[in-house]
Amino acid sequence: MPHYRCIVSNSSGKKSDIIKDANNEKELINYINKMDLFLISSEIIDDSQLNKTKKHYSKDTILDFTEIMATLLQAGLTIQDGLELCKSITTNSKTTTLSQALLDGLQHGIPFYEVLKIYSSSFSLLYQSLIRLGEKTGSVAGVFSRLGSYLRTEKQIKGKLGNALWYPLFILCIAIAGCFGIIFYIMPRMAEIFAAFNVGNEDTVSIELQQVYGSLWVSLSIFIILLISIVCFFVLRKTSDAFVLFSDTILLKIPLLGPFLKSLQTLDFAFAMELLTGSGITVSNALKETASVVSNKAFSQAILDVHERLLRGEKLSAAFMGHTIFPGYIS
What angle is formed at CA 232 by the lines to CA 231 and CA 235, rounded to 5 degrees? Predict the structure, then answer.
């Protein structure tokens, strides 16, 4: 559904800028008229334009915001009232700024999950999708509560993982810096050092140094090619849906990395399924909705295939067993 940036005015002539999603201009005009506003101009904008100028908030800020909102919504407040109170009671200035930004979006008539989409650099796909599903099922308070627990657990896991990886990465950086020091500082002076100690003749030393340099340039060329390949990989993922599906499939098959990614996707999938089925949604509909929650396209396609098989009358366990992409304990 396209997003429209609209310039509107009220009966007193005051102009304002709002963003609204609508299927077409007729639906957009009807929405503006229901708000007792007058549409002056409108233009379609894409997702990149929505979040291009938006500030990025850290995971700690998102966690703080989520936990406060969970408490306020469980106390019976609406989302708008919760945002108003959140910005006044938090001690984190960034949480205050975030709450005000989201509140401004709501006051412009944008659904809450669409406001989160505008700040997609801060709110993950899982976060946005679950809020959308929570609004759909009327259980936003429960979603915030579970998201708070989820983000807290995720922070602890990533903290342990980061502590485990910090030392190897530090050693790797030192090694790379040492290699550059050898190439650009020590190697150019090797001939002088050998000459000073009368080690071999100049021609022999020169030939050996050239061989070493040749090996170093080959290694550097491989490194540059690898770097260019990584850049191209991410560019293609931004521009081609087919490549995203292909690359996500390959990533899940890589030894060690694949099982780890599968575990993360399964965690998100199970979390969303628990939320939806607990809200009274059927397993079939929950599967269809959950496919939009996971970030790996291959995993998402497999969930949609399970949904199709379920509609054809297959057992749920048999539908899951038809895909090796799912861990064995799911079926």
Answer: 90
